[in-house]
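Re: weekly structure request thread

Next one in the queue (205 aa):
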Amino acid sequence: MPAARESLLDAAYTALTRRPWSAVRMVDVAASAGVSRQTLYNEFGSKDGLARALVRREADMYLAGVERALAGAAAPRDRLTAAAEWTVAAARDNVVVRALLTGCWTERLPAPPSAAAPPAAPSALPFPVQRRAEGPLPAPRDFVRVVRDRAATALAGPGAAPADTAELSRSCELVVRLALSCVAAPPGEGGMAELVRAVLPRHLA
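Done, posted below.
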């Protein structure tokens, strides 16, 4: 029931923006989504299952935004700047994304299961929403690695020399880490482009 599942996740996120997760009731989420409580339990099994699915969906939506920012024919600097700006905006506007990227989970949010879970195997990333709900959630370092690798792959182009690719990967990681620092201390207007320019190799900047 994909439509019901998305409606339930939307309702759960809306509820989370209005009250602490501990105060969110399954019956209210089901009513808001226009489905029965049994349908909610059939989809997610429990409130913890709903929380995990919600966090995974927000992670997937953030990564989809990164992909959009890196796509197209714009200059590499512009695409990296767009990905960095998207990271800052997503963390500003979405409390779950902010917690995922920073590791700062407040008591208003679902408790992050990753703290007690073993680290995800490299083959388990990126993180499709369809994977098992029992698996660990991505940590901030996982997002750094995934976004860095996607950016380097998108910008390297065919036939790139290994040395150039390694340099680009380092630059992309610096951009990702700059973006995460800007979540806490946003730059002024136009400041992100200057920060990205400063860490890119000369031939890309």
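The chain is about 65% helix and 0% strand. The chain has a mean pLDDT of 83.
Next request, please.
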